[in-house]
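Lecture notes, part 5. Sequence design as translation. It can be helpful to think of inverse folding as translation between two languages: the language of shapes and the language of residues. The source text, in structure tokens, appears below.
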């Protein structure tokens, strides 16, 4: 149930402008006219499901383990966001195979994508852990609406409204910080006035490019939508499988991407991508982001990197509530999830 009402496309929360609740553009303007290539690779995730992890793994597979690209290019540039297309230079001139990342729901993908059918790796994660990770992330990322208490955030998460809405400037900030840096240098580095002084500009941009507003919607819609995309060329994998056996996961992805890797390369890639090693990579751990945007003292971006951390956070009542909602929502889904 995603409808886009052009009469009231935006609403405000705490001075920030968001797209109208319970609405979702069918084919966001930002994706219109993207020329997909058959050999493009698209990584799709719901937020907090292992996005940045994939931005490490896939480039390493394509380079057959050569770490230069992950050591020198920030994750948002080596695997750019479709959402931020307006801010990426020379997308069309990038050499094949291009790798993109997106949080868009399946029903928001443009017709070009449906026709060309580029390869997709869809990554899923136990929604209880997605929730836990998202709660911590919302506390540290200043550009997101404050999550409120855990219970409040849980209601919003299950409801699928209110938390996942991001606007174009947030995305530009998150993923194109260096670009913003040049134009907004003074503002960003002035923690006193920085973020607040940007709101007028923010509002301005939103007015003129409400076209680029995006939403990601509920976890349940997201996963069900992408699982229903049977005609596309999709590999499904979960965060939990990657935790359980990263070598096997890398091998499977390499096969899907037609990139033969010997066991030594696979071992090398796996070693680079395990949590404790990847966490040290400045180009991947978001430490390049100013603390006014992401305060890693509140919670690190690469926070715990485990499966099942929800058990340390959800109360028994919350977990039960979650289970009941999950059962109802997923009753018709045939896919077998590792966490079930
Ligand atoms: P936690 O908050 O549970 O630690 P995304 O990149 O989609 O925003 O997801 C972030 C989550 O993926 C965080 O989860 C982060 O720690 C985890 N993550 C990132 N890199 C990882 C890695 N190499 N191994 C395990 N988990 C990783």
């Amino acid at each position: 149930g995603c409808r886009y009402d052009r009469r009231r496309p935006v609403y405000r929360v705490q001075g920030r402008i968001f797209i109208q609740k319970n609405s979702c553009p069918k084919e966001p303007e930002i994706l219109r006219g993207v020329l997909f290539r058959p050999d493009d690779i698209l990584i799709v995730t719901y937020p907090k499901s292992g996005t940045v992890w994939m931005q490490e793994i896939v480039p390493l597979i394509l380079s057959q383990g050569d770490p230069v690209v992950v050591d020198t290019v920030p994750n948002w540039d080596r695997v750019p966001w479709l959402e931020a297309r307006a801010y990426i230079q020379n997308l069309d001139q990038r050499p094949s195979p291009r790798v993109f990342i997106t949080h868009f729901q399946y029903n928001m993908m443009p017709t070009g994508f449906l026709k060309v059918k580029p390869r997709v790796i869809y990554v899923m994660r136990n929604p209880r852990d997605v929730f836990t990770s998202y709660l911590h992330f919302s506390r540290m990322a200043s550009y997101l609406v404050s999550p409120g208490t855990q219970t409040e955030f849980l209601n919003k998460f299950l409801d699928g409204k209110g938390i996942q809405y991001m606007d174009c400037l947030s995305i530009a900030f998150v993923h194109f910080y260096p670009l913003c840096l040049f134009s907004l240098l003074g503002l960003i580095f002035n923690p006193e006035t920085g973020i607040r002084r940007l709101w007028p500009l923010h509002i301005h941009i939103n007015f003129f490019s409400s076209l680029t507003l995006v939403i990601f919607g509920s976890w349940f819609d997201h996963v069900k939508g992408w699982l229903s995309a049977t005609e596309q060329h999709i590999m499904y994998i979960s965060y939990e499988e990657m935790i359980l056996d990263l070598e096997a996961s890398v091998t499977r992805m390499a096969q899907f991407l037609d990139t033969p890797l010997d066991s030594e390369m696979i071992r090398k890639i796996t070693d680079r991508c395990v949590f404790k090693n990847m966490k040290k990579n400045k180009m991947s751990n978001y430490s390049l982001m100013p603390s006014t945007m992401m305060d890693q003292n509140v919670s690190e971006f690469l926070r715990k990197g485990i499966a099942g951390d929800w058990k340390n956070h959800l109360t028994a009542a919350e977990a039960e509530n979650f289970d009941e909602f999950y059962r109802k929502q997923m009753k018709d889904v045939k896919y077998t999830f590792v966490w079930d």
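The translated text above is only one of many valid answers, since several sequences can fold into similar shapes. Residues 1-25, 162-214 have pLDDT under 50 and may be disordered.
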